[in-house]
Description:
Blueprint: E1 7-11, E2 16-17, H1 21-28, E3 32-33, E4 41-49, E5 53-56, H2 64-67, H3 71-83, E6 86-90, H4 91-96, H5 104-107, H6 112-121, E7 129-134, E8 152-156, H7 158-167, E9 173-174, H8 185-191, E10 199-203, H9 206-214, E11 220-226, E12 238-240, E13 255-262, E14 265-271
Parallel strand pairs: 4-10, 4-11, 6-7, 6-10, 7-8, 8-9
Antiparallel strand pairs: 1-13, 2-3, 5-12, 11-14, 13-14
Helix pairs in contact: 3-6
Amino acid sequence: MTGPKLEILLDESAGDVLPLGPELAALYGQLRMPAHPDRPHVFTNFVASVDGVVAIDPPHGTGADVSGGDARDRSVMGLLRAVADAVVVGAGNLRAEADPVWTAERICPEHASAWAALRAALHKPPAPLQVVVTGSGDVDLSRAVFSGAVPLLLVTTATGAARVVAQKKGLPVAVPPPGAGWIPLRAVLAAAGLGPGALVLVESGPTSTARYFEEGAIDELFLTSAPLLLGRGGASRTLGLIEGRTFPPRARPLRLVSARRGGSFLFLRYASPP
């Protein structure tokens, strides 16, 4: 979180105040996260243009194409990774990123010591569990996330498991029932052993995220609104926040619980109704 403190416009978020430490609190303010007695708390994070575009030239584009690599956006993403027990990643995101692991230090190395101190204060291991979800098992196992440097679980179907195990024995793999087709998010979390009180960050693409919202499995959306217009339907392919699903007549209402401003960027937080 380089640069001046984010201006707090609204904060009605619920839950306990997390121990950010003076460096992070001076820049972000308080961060609260709910803890549910019967399930994990699941949140997702996107950066979108004012007209709702989250990806340019998929599957190669990343959020940095929309944010311009804005330091404040990277730091908010780092903060969410730093407090998470697990990060759920779709195979599409894995293919889009250069060679990632989903940790705060990787996205925002400027505050590596502050991220480490925060995780220690929360009694969490140095890195969140990386939960990679793939139905087909079509993933590049040479990527850094599969190197053993961070805790990992690959969640897939029976067919996908056979494919990846044949390539790399000893890889931690889970196959939730029924073992084929689309894997619901709650099945992913159960397979990863993420129970009550866990904080789970979902960093999947807009198609998977649409289905997770449709399932009612996401509690909160952190959304950075970047001050630009990108458009849809032209020569360059773009994707919106929700792809492949339409919710009317049962629209998915959201409640704004937090708003911060940094320059012309807005950092919004929405809660899904219970």
